[in-house]
Amino acid sequence: MSDTPVVDERLLALLRADLTAAAFTVDGVAARLGPVASAALHREQPLPALLATEPPTPPTLSGGHGDACGVLIRLFTLGRPVAAAALAGVLPTLGVEGAVALGLVRLEGGRAGFGAAQPAGDRQAVATCDLRPYGDDAHDWWVASDLSELAVGGPLRADHVLGIGGASTTLASWTVRRPVERALDLGTGCGVQALHLTGHAGFIVGTDISQRALAYAAFNLALAATERREADRPDAVPPLDLLAGDLLDPVAGQQFSLVVSNPPFVITPRDEDLTLYEYRDGGRAGDTLVRSLVRQVGAVLEPGGIAQLLGNWEVPAGRTWREVWGEWLDEQAREGVALDAWVVQRESQDPAEYAELWARDGGAQPGSEAHSRMYAAWLRDFAARDVERVGFGVVTLQRPATDRPPWRSLDEAYGPVAAPMGPAVDAGLRARTWLAEHPDDEVLDVAWSCAADVTEERHGRPGAEDPSVILVRQGGGLGRVVRAGTLLAAYLGVADGELTARAALEAIATVLELDPADVRAEVLPQLRDLVADGLLV
Ligand SMILES: C[S@@+](CC[C@H](N)C(=O)[O-])C[C@H]1O[C@@H](n2cnc3c(N)ncnc32)[C@H](O)[C@@H]1O
After folding, report:
1. How far is the CA of 436 from the CAs of 338, 407, 429, 522, 529, in angstroms?
2. How high is the pLDDT of residue 64?
3. Could you identify the atom of ligand 1 that is nearest to the CA of residue 264?
4. Residue ranges of the alpha helices (H) in 336-456?
5. Contact criterion met (CB below 8 Å) for 138 and 177
6. Residue 490: pLDDT above 70?
7. Region class of 167: left (phi > 0), else alpha (psi between -120 and 50), else beta
8. Is 194 in the pocket of ligand 1 (CB under 6 A)?
9. pTM of the predicted structure, to 2 decimals
10. Which range is least confidently modeled, 57-66, 146-155, 403-412?
């Protein structure tokens, strides 16, 4: 018998109706739990949510259960058994039998012989998977995955299918949401990226090495599709192909306008007796998996196509992360069509910080023998390659649409960024591409203006007439803060879209009695930089 949910379109439509009626939506769950229990759950502390959803005593029997949302949270998020009779009241159209048939719950205890549709009062329904609401601005979705560590109460199975986590929402936020013909979600897992793609892709391919993950993805996308079918817009459901296989193997020879991937990028020691979790470990040593994806992904990108992925990269002693990426990109360019590359490093950890994060992730408690063993294994693994730092970030690669040379932008952004970040990435790609296609003379001929989210801060000694530091701060995008010298500050002060940069810099040079060529030489690289990140538009 399968241990993943199964697709039955008739039953999925009933499930959707019941979940909606129970207000088991993102907003409904937040309202039901309240801010304290919600925040605790976010920190993986289930106790406040368990107390908040305790069943009434004596239990309410089927029909008109007053706390439908609470029962569903308890069952599917917290992994606690609920009375089958209570569940029957919460799922009036699907019924407990339907939930069993979909592979979402099993029944335990009680007297044999009672049909699941008419459960005996003492039978318990036990969730066989995690099911929780998720959504974007326009949709209420639900996502099934394996029960979390919090529900299982111990280490996860090696072939665990992950639900939506921080990395999933980061990638979803950074994804460029242009309408595209064909999109690929590589390492689709529970299918969360593919769900987002349904809003702007004409055809979606999801791949994964795990058949169990593909079964979850099929279930979640079919459940989402019931919404459009209900709205009598079956044509609005983009066709979906789910393919099993390693990295790009299943799509060899195909072309995509957009590839998204939250790959199993976690660097994991190979020669130790550790559980290799399929969801985070792609079966390669060090950062080889992300590096090979970067090297190979160009082969499935159509001209103008974009690939966005998350990753970790190792930085050996004596090198910078930019040098490491320079080498990866040179290797990519040697192997195929050289891609434009925009890498934003969001975090940099030392080996111990990295080991602590990932030794804890599978369910081992700090201080336990298992945790210490893993921690030591990670430290040995990094030491063997002389790794000093581990970078994490978001990578956007673009296949140039023409035969111009590719551009590279290797940036750091450790603070908060726009949410969603996709529109800023889209604008940044267009700006960088425009800059690559236009020489300095043409950049100078544009009347740039400061973007609406740019502010200026002046800092100075108390009583001083002039500021000693001028900071230019971007409200959205990467949230860049740029220290502006006198010339840049003067230029930004007049960059209002009326005057070309050439004329403005000429005027500044005259006022300050400087050579205009020197002024242009100093400001132009900074101007290009600000255009690339959307501070000048
Ligand atoms: C971190 S999960 C991402 C799941 C989901 N796309 C998300 O954004 O949350 C990585 C996925 O890659 C899959 N995977 C692991 N090794 C793989 C490989 N060699 N080729 C393709 N997929 C792989 C795992 O099974 C898992 O579903």
Report:
1. 14, 7, 11, 19, 12
2. 44
3. 10
4. 351-361, 369-384, 422-437, 440-444
5. no
6. yes
7. alpha
8. no
9. 0.94
10. 57-66
Calculate mean pLDDT across residues 426-440.
Answer: 98
Distance of CA 181 to the CA centre of its chain: 21
- Tell me the C-alpha distance between 241 and 256, whole Å: 13
Q: CA angle at residue 124 from 121 to 128, to 5 degrees?
A: 150
Mean pLDDT of the chain: 93
pLDDT above 60 (res 12):
yes
**What is the whole-number distance in angstroms between the Cα of residue 213 and the centre of ligand 1?**
8
Which position has the higher pLDDT, 188 or 1? 188
List the structure tokens of 99.
């939930």
CB 445 within 8 A of CB 439: no
For residue 411, give the amino acid letter. D
φ, ψ at 462 (rounded to 5°): -55, 130
**Distance from C-alpha of 201 to C-alpha of 301, rounded to nearest angstrom:** 15
Return d(Cα 532, Cα 326) in angstroms, integer.
19
For residue 213 and ligand 1, the question of a CB distance below 6 A is answered with yes
**Neighbouring-strand partners of residue 284:** none
Write the pLDDT tens digit of every residue in 108-134: 997 654 444 444 568 999 999 999 999
| Residue 29 CB-density burial (10 A; 0-12 exposed, 13-18 middle, 19+ buried) | buried
- pLDDT score of 132: 97
99 lines ligand 1 (CB under 6 A): no
Helices (H) and strands (E) in the chain, counts: 19, 16
Tally the C-alpha atoms within 13 A of residue 49's C-alpha that lie toward its C-beta.
30
The first and second tokens of residue 346, run together, are 């969001």
Q: What percent of the chain has pLDDT over 90?
A: 82
Distance 421 CA to ligand 1 centre (A): 22
- Residue that the structure tokens 């920190």 belong to: 43
